[in-house]
Design goal:
It holds the Pfam family HTH_1. Helix content is 48%, strand content 18%. By secondary structure, the protein is α/β, with parallel strands linked by helices. The strands form three sheets. A five-stranded mixed β-sheet has the order 4-3-5-12-6, with helices on both faces. The protein has a five-stranded mixed β-sheet with strand order 9-8-10-7-11. α2 crosses α3 (31-37), α2 (16-28) packs across α5 (72-99) and α6 crosses α12. The N and C termini lie far apart (54 Å).
Length: 312
């Protein structure tokens, strides 16, 4: 039997309930709890797991006194199971909405720097042309969006690569870049300073930064390193725009965020930009989609709108 025929035979033997069992084992790591969730006996759940392992001819979970733990190959199947189940669930939801007369659903994830301008304008235009299309917009950091995209929980991400190897998993089309600013509250002791030393800011003031896993934070840390400076010791990590703005308004913290997010608050004088340069080496953001996967018609339509707006 050829390799491709063998792979097809494996997939033909894999059923929906098998995928559900694998996903639930990842969640609970306990066969008794999984059996209860599937409304079956524990011996039946154990037999089903053995069937799956026999199908793939490998051990997928190690049994321990504390439950089960996935093997390296088990982790691969877990990722596939979650992705397949998410796609099935979203397909069922989309079919239901079509039956109700809707024009389908589009789930879009965007980094905070792209959301206020490019993405907001694109979504408004998309809804103008297709008012019955349900659009869900999730605002996250690039690392979170890449994970959601890999899990089939979103259709498209406006973000940037997080690791060097992600070009093997996703297609990327550049749209633009973010201008990063360091800001403080309007009555901060540094608010009216004409010049500042980055070293002094790092040593003397608290900072409000994106999570360490985000590309913007990693670039910032690299800039500290290249300048021969230590990271700030007093840090609040915050991935929420609203929470970060509340923190900077009520503290002496230095907040680093994209200019597009901060613009309205700067214009009304709630915060002030500091005279330092940050995030200079941040790579462009753009359209991220799963590699070797046909794009749905709404996704293709949105991509065309994004290109038009970015090109203006």
């Amino acid at each position: 039997m050829s390799e491709s025929m063998r792979h097809a035979a494996l997939l033909n033997r894999l059923r929906y309930k098998h995928l559900l069992l694998i996903a639930l084992l990842d969640e609970h790591r306990n066969l008794h709890q999984v059996a209860r969730a599937l409304n079956m006996s524990q011996p039946a759940a154990t037999r089903m797991l053995r069937e799956i392992e026999a199908t793939f001819e490998c051990r997928l979970f190690e049994r321990t006194t504390r439950g089960v733990q996935p093997t390296r190959l088990g982790e691969v199947l877990i990722e596939f199971a979650h992705g397949a189940l998410n796609r099935l669930n979203r397909c069922a939801e989309s079919l239901h909405r079509h039956q109700l007369g809707d024009q389908g659903q589009l789930v879009l994830g965007a980094i905070m720097g792209a959301a206020p301008d490019l993405v907001a304008e694109a979504v408004i235009e998309m809804k103008r042309q297709r008012p019955l299309l349900q659009v869900r917009l999730l605002g996250e950091t690039s690392d979170q969006l890449v994970e959601l995209l890999a899990q089939n929980k979103i259709d498209i991400a406006i973000a940037r690569y997080v690791t060097a190897l992600q070009h093997n998993q996703f297609d990327f089309e550049s749209l633009g870049n973010e201008t990063m600013l360091a800001v403080v509250r309007h009555d901060h002791p540094l608010a009216d300073e004409a010049s500042l030393s980055l070293a002094t800011l790092l040593e003397a003031w608290p900072w409000i930064l994106q999570p360490l896993e985000s590309p913007a934070r990693q670039v910032l840390e690299k800039e500290f390193e290249l300048a021969g400076l230590m990271s700030p010791r007093d840090i609040i990590e915050c991935g929420s725009i609203f929470a970060a703005l509340q923190l900077v308004k009520r503290s002496d913290g230095v907040l680093v965020m994209p200019e597009s997010v901060l613009r309205d608050y700067l214009e009304i004088g709630l915060i002030k930009a500091l005279p330092i340069s940050v995030g200079k080496t941040l790579s462009p953001f753009g359209i991220l989609t799963r590699k070797n996967e046909a794009l749905s018609e709404p996704v293709r339509h949105l991509c065309a709108i994004l290109r038009d707006i970015a090109g203006d």
